[in-house]
Each structure stands twice: as structure tokens, then as C-alpha cells.
Design a protein that fits this description.
By secondary structure, this protein is mostly beta strands. Helix content is 10%, strand content 58%. It has one domain: RNA polymerase II/Efflux pump adaptor protein, barrel-sandwich hybrid domain (OB fold (Dihydrolipoamide Acetyltransferase, E2P), Beta Barrel). The protein is globular.
Length: 69
């Protein structure tokens, strides 16, 4: 998949907090920080992201996008 954002790091899904419509996906990345992304439950299902998966964290402006590879 091609994307215009140039800031990308790899992380591992450590926790998924599900709500009725939205969810929060917590990621562990190398370094002193962790990253979280909020997305719709439909996006979570479409991407097939599960706890323990390795994902690429794409950061552009105020958006944090996850790409499962």
C-alpha cells in the first residue's frame, strides 16, 4: 500500500479497548513511548488487527494510521 506520510514506525498491538462504535488500539514501539490510535470498530474489523499483531504506525499531521503487514 502506498501512502504520502513519511513518518512510519513499527509497533506491536498491546491492548484493544472496544466500544459500541469506536475502539482504542494501544501499541508498544521501540523507545521510551507508547502510541494509541482511535478508529471505528468497522476499521478494526476490516484491517483484521488483533492483540499481538505487528503493525506499521503511519503518522501524518494529527492522524495516526495503522497498517497491518
Amino acid at each position: 500500500m502506498k501512502y504520502g506520510a513519511r513518518n512510519a514506525i513499527v509497533g506491536k498491538v498491546t491492548k484493544i479497548k472496544k466500544g459500541a462504535v469506536m475502539c482504542q488500539v494501544d501499541l508498544g514501539v521501540k523507545g521510551p513511548i507508547d502510541v494509541s490510535s482511535v478508529m471505528t470498530m468497522d476499521s478494526l474489523k476490516s484491517l483484521g488487527i488483533r492483540k499481538g499483531d505487528s503493525v506499521r504506525v503511519i503518522i501524518k499531521a494529527v492522524n495516526v494510521l495503522l497498517v497491518k503487514e
